[in-house]
Model the fold of this input.
Amino acid sequence: MKVVELGDAHGLVNMLKAVKDDRARKEALRALVALSHTDITVGSLHLAGASSVISYTPDSSEDAEVMGYKFSLLKRFQDLKFDTTS
Done:
């Protein structure tokens, strides 16, 4: 929750958008999953543009966890009725 209060959710979303390698992408997604356990945090992530960034994040051909993280996050947005198509 402290990450969201400090505005660092935007930083994580921007990091995910900018990373080029699978390992860094996986770590950014893992951090976002860790933050997504409360509805308030998911709302903040949505406002930071996370749903569209996650949707367009490339899949990893070498690491199935990346797909799992993406699916988990997008499901949370859908469960809370946030648009994941934009």
Notes: The two ends are 25 Å apart (CA to CA). The mean pLDDT is 83. Residues 64-79 form the longest helix (16 residues).
